[in-house]
Every structure is written in structure tokens, then in C-alpha cells.
């Protein structure tokens, strides 16, 4: 398997809970620049009251081995499990 691009194993999950948005991203280990762009975009959104009037985005970023797609699936499942457990309590 060839080295994956930074966005190939990108997984985005968004949940809304009490004026808070949680956004999780899973990037290939080689995608440090993509992660930086992701963080900057979220920061810009959080600072723009015209887009997010009362909500704020909280993020979680995880890096995985681009040659191991199963790891990305495991990380995505762990994130979903955490979110479902958190929002049910």
C-alpha cells in the first residue's frame, strides 16, 4: 500500500450539544500542514460571531499511520464511543 495523502484518512464528526460543537478529525501522520489549516479554520469560525452567534467549536485531532487504514477506523470508533457516552450522561 502506498503512502496515503494527508486527507485520505480524514474523518470528520460533528455533534451539537448545548451551544457547543464538537469536531473530531483524524489525519495521516504526514499531514501536519493539513492539521494546522484545520485548526486555523476552526479558530476563524469561532471568532466570527456572524457565523457562530452563540456556539463554539471544540476540536480533537488524532494522527494515524497512513499505511494502516484499520487504525483510522479504530480511532473513529473510539471517538464515536466517547461522544455517545458523553452525550447520553
TrEMBL record:
* Matches recorded under InterPro entries: IGluR_D (IPR043373)
Looking up PANTHER family in the UniProt record yields: GLUTAMATE RECEPTOR IONOTROPIC, DELTA-2 (PTHR36687:SF1), GLUTAMATE RECEPTOR IONOTROPIC, DELTA-2-RELATED (PTHR36687)
The protein in question is named: Uncharacterized protein
Protein species of origin: Salvator merianae (Argentine black and white tegu)
Q: What is the lineage of its organism?
A: Eukaryota, Metazoa, Chordata, Craniata, Vertebrata
Amino acid at each position: 500500500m502506498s503512502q496515503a495523502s494527508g486527507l485520505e484518512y480524514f474523518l470528520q464528526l460533528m455533534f451539537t450539544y448545548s451551544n457547543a460543537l464538537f469536531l473530531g478529525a483524524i489525519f495521516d501522520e504526514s499531514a501536519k500542514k493539513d492539521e494546522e489549516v484545520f485548526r486555523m479554520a476552526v479558530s476563524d469560525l469561532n471568532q466570527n460571531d456572524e457565523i457562530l452567534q452563540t456556539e463554539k467549536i471544540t476540536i480533537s485531532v488524532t494522527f494515524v499511520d497512513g499505511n494502516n487504514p484499520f487504525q483510522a477506523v479504530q480511532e473513529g470508533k473510539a471517538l464515536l464511543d466517547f461522544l455517545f457516552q458523553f452525550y447520553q450522561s
